[in-house]
User: Fold this.
Amino acid sequence: MDQKNKNSKKPAYSRFSQQELPAWKPILTPGWAITSFITIGALFIPIGLIALSASDRVVEIVDRYDESCIPDEFSNNAESFIQNPDTKKTCLRTLKVPKKMVAPIFVYYQLENFYQNHRRYVKSKNDKQLRDPKAANETKNCYPEAYTADNKPIVPCGLIAWSLFNDTYKLSTRGNPLTIDKKGIAWKSDTKAKFGKDVYPKDFQKGGLIGGASLDERIPLSEQEDLIVWMRTAALPNFRKLYGKINTDLEAHETIKVEVENNYNTYKFGGKKKLVLSTTTWIGGKNDFLGVAYITVGGICLFMAINFILLYVFRPRRLGDPSYLSWNRQPIV
Assistant:
């Protein structure tokens, strides 16, 4: 063996290293393309129609109340109204049930133009403090809501907990109160793993500037489900969070009286607040996007199939011989 071949770094030949193992190498003929487009269209359009039908069966009531719950004398200065502790924040709203709503009926609050996904806001908490009762002093990333004026650690610390939503809703129909069940509204993984059952709120909302709701210091964080729901931050500036569930049916054309405590200050940044009552189906809440997306893709595929058929019939092109493809040619000996 000469010196040149001895020093070569060329690997030993194998069918694996040269990618010559048996494999399916399809040739996209007009027949294959037309069949594929028709199959996709035939599958996607019925799926889209089924999804739209399921979404249409969802009964949803949406009521924006942030503007209506401001007295006329404060219409040009809503922020001063919401920040004044002496003003009465109670507001009465009336809702009409368009169609029968079968329990469970989910009650949401919806906020718009609220950027929970801001990097500084998302980081403003300490996961170890939320889990471990011995980690009360772990307040990294929580500034400026880390310590009280007398240097006591705040539990839970950070801007997310501090800005906890604090509007409340009381619903009634036919003069009878509708019970809103607030148990089981948070993810089980959060209540069991992220929030400790031995961790209790301490010195929360005790500063000079109150950001939102207060917490009962006798209840551990793992049972403070409003807080847990709020601290699972939203990815988009417009979002809904679960407030509770109504476990009784509501008949069509029934009137619901809502007593709103309009406490949360969205007026500072031009946000919107809405109360949402919604049923669900197998597809979830009301959302036409999935059905429209399936129908759109299926329609495009059928349109492309028809175009390919017309081109293939009226302007056919001669196909190449697949035997000349590199993987079909016989190796030269």
User: Anything to note?
Assistant: The longest strand covers residues 105-112. Residues 30-56 form the longest helix (27 residues).
